[in-house]
């Protein structure tokens, strides 16, 4: 009888322990399941932003590519969908097909002083990817009679005008400006002698045209300080309302990549050579232009430096609302946070 009682007690204890373990494992499985759901939900809710860029190896694309490949966007909880533009990036942005664009301040200002409502988030760098090309030798630069721009009122138009004036030409009297959309058609027009002077996003394009090695190439920083081809990061009021955290993460990521590249020149040159199949010399030259393009530029928009540019834009673009308050263009909160965090 006594043995039966002991066995019964042991059996009860075993059952109790088993029940406890089962309950514990059940709770653990539920916790793991809940944790898995949470991770999935977090993944689904990861911040996403649509960025529109022009295709090619450009100053802007270089920084964006590095921030992506280095994991800087990801580290800030951001997923960036890059849209390569077939038309002007600012037009795609204002049509609601993208959330953020990196373009030129000149184009943004011209649009703002007309009917558009872009919002300027940051002004990171002077554009350094473009070059000017002439079919005439540098000794005969004063003989330029016809020049092509991609679009009247664009940043490219502004810079071609500035470059020609820096040569001592009277653009209003001596040079005819024509609009030819697309680098390929402009380059063909130059090769055929239909125009004397154009701008390109990269001198690499000259490798694709017969006789390109004989053209005279000018870099913006070599011509004149008056060429102020400031890149800007812009958004729309709609995106600013709907995706403020995403835009903030983008600006912070961009600034972090920007600073890292400046502080790590050898790694930056190695990256350029590997990413874009550049020779060491080409990579060094590209990085040197990147460093020079940073000089005198404030990441935080600074309207106190814009007076001359504004007057030039008014003259070239002839906007419909030239007296519009410039302060309405600027939203510099994220840029200030990015710079403060980086200091």
Folded structure, characterized:
- This protein is α/β, with parallel strands linked by helices.
- Helix content is 51%, strand content 14%.
- The protein has helices spanning 2-44, 59-69, 72-75, 89-94, 105-112, 155-166, 171-174, 183-191, 220-223, 237-242, 244-263, 265-276, 280-293, 307-317, 333-342; strands spanning 47-53, 78-84, 100-104, 119-122, 131-134, 146-149, 176-179, 197-200, 216-218, 231-235.
- The chain has a 5-stranded mixed beta sheet with strand order 2-1-3-10-4. It has a 3-stranded antiparallel beta sheet with strand order 8-5-9, with helices on both faces.
- Helix 2 packs across helix 11 (244-263) and helix 11 crosses helix 15.
- The N and C termini lie far apart (82 Å).
- Residues 1-29 and 37-44 have low confidence and may be disordered.
């Amino acid at each position: 009888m006594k043995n039966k009682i002991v066995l019964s007690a042991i059996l009860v204890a075993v059952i109790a322990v088993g029940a406890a373990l089962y309950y514990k494992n059940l709770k653990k499985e539920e916790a793991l399941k809940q944790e898995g759901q949470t991770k999935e939900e977090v993944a689904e809710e990861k911040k996403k932003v649509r960025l529109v860029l022009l295709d090619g190896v450009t100053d802007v694309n270089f920084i964006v590519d590095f921030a992506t490949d280095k994991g800087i966007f990801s580290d800030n909880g951001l997923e960036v969908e890059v849209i390569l533009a077939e038309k002007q990036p600012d037009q795609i942005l204002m049509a609601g097909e993208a959330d953020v664009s990196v373009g030129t301040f000149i184009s943004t200002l011209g649009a703002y002083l007309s009917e558009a409502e872009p919002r300027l988030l940051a002004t990171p760098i002077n554009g350094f990817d473009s070059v000017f090309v002439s079919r005439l030798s540098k000794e005969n630069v004063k003989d330029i009679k016809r020049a092509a721009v991609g679009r009247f009122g664009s940043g490219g138009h502004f810079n071609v005008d500035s470059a020609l004036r820096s040569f001592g030409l009277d653009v209003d009297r001596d040079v005819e400006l024509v609009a030819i959309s697309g680098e390929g058609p402009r380059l063909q027009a130059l090769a055929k002698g239909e125009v004397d002077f154009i701008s390109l996003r990269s001198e690499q394009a000259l490798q694709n045209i017969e006789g390109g090695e004989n053209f005279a190439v000018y870099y913006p920083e070599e011509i004149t300080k008056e060429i102020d081809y400031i890149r800007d990061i812009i958004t729309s009021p709609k995106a600013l309302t709907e995706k403020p955290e995403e835009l903030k993460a983008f600006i912070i990521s961009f600034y972090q990549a920007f600073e890292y590249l400046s502080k790590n020149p050898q790694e930056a040159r190695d990256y350029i050579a590997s990413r874009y199949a550049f020779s060491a010399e080409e990579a060094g030259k590209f990085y040197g232009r990147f460093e020079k393009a940073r000089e005198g530029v404030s990441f935080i928009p600074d309207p106190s430096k814009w007076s001359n540019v504004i007057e030039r834009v008014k003259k070239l673009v002839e906007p419909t609302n030239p007296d519009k308050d410039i302060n309405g263009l600027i939203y510099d909160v994220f840029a200030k946070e990015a710079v403060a965090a980086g200091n």
